[in-house]
């Protein structure tokens, strides 16, 4: 069984390396290792688990409904429905989701 | 006698003159005058969208001023999973089943807005609530529903929950019915949903066989945060729906358009004779009144328009964002919050079509001068309201929804939100912030939390309906 090494990078400088097995989402693996990556609905609708892919090949196994096309172009991914296909580096943490929706009046 | 005693005995007080003893109170006035002061508050506490690796919880806050732990979060009932986003919740039974013997208001129905998981919490001892059973998301998805919101118990042994999406978090939503006895899922409540697609809150007036529901958006639209492009694309609601409570069929759609964008919380008077009510349109920041006309059709009008305000640091005028609204048990006063401005308003609604602003309390938000209370910075702004049964104390929390909090008040995502209170003087038509009362959920055990809906053991202004 192939596994991929996923490096998680938080904006406060913290980093962790995660071994993600085949058929496992990044959130499955981060929960297994109790790394505290945020999540919500677990089916790609809510965006709580938003990360940003910095390097590597990551695929969504379900449609990431919580992301708009421009978010996907900018590298945002929903980690509850994302499986690595190579070693990856991903920016994670609660702040990433907030990138998706700036204050529209400010 | 305290309404915080285990509820079977506590609520008998209102039933001394009745042959049948059911839960709740025979009339709104009985609840207002014969229950005692609230001593415990249940408050939804949540960690979703925060870097706090802990689950959400049902918080127990001591609101008994004679207690040594007054104003403190004295217990947290942690959920077994993370990521639920506890939001609104309700009772297994209320005054609408007042004449149903053998029912006791002793279980809280606590849904996860994002997870679609529904927790049943035994609250027969208000200071020691515990999880009794859980309906897992998969069981909810089987009925092609998701995103549970408003919980009302309804007569004939049922609980009905408004559901905002289908199993994929898309439209349409619907209503999920549970059995009051064993908390199993019966299926959909509605028989025919007409042109209703979006859902949010609902209220019903059983004496007139009517139910009204409101609209937020599809979960996949509002879950990730607020995007004005989605409003322009018509993905947010602007209508409410009238249902036949008996036949469970959709009857009429009231479309507000620009005057009523994102109609969220809906309230009808507690007096079961009334056939009117109010809904707060969050984005338009209007209060709309609706009523049943002589021919049985429902009509509406705008009765309050909260003016947008210019902010020196913002490019566009800032709407108030009316996110919660409630009516006192005597139906004399309406309170609502302007979450982006930072105020709670109190209106005299004795002339229902002409609400009269009598007082306003500014704290936090983007416009209040007062940005701290009792040494605590106010993170967020008045949002989810709850009034004491006697109408003399208005409590609120400051968080709206995790992703929307992170967008408008990001500090809540790091430090949690607050619960606050104003003393209300209904005889004088005014209210005053209680600077001594602040519950800072930033200090919650296990790490900062947001605080959302508030309820009292024994029922409250937004839980109980009368037949």
Automatic annotation (TrEMBL), chain A:
Keywords: 2Fe-2S, Electron transport, Iron, Iron-sulfur, Metal-binding, Transport. Belongs to the 2Fe2S plant-type ferredoxin family. PROSITE patterns: 2FE2S_FER_1, 2FE2S_FER_2. Signal peptide: none annotated. Its cofactor is [2Fe-2S] cluster. It comes from the Archaea. This is 2Fe-2S iron-sulfur cluster-binding protein. GO terms for molecular function: 2 iron, 2 sulfur cluster binding; metal ion binding. Residues 4-96 form the 2Fe-2S ferredoxin-type domain. It holds the Pfam family Fer2.
TrEMBL record, chain B:
It comes from the Archaea. This is Selenium-binding family protein. Belongs to the selenium-binding protein family. Residues 1-27 are annotated as: Disordered. InterPro entries: Se-bd (IPR008826). Residues 9-21 have a biased composition (Basic and acidic residues).
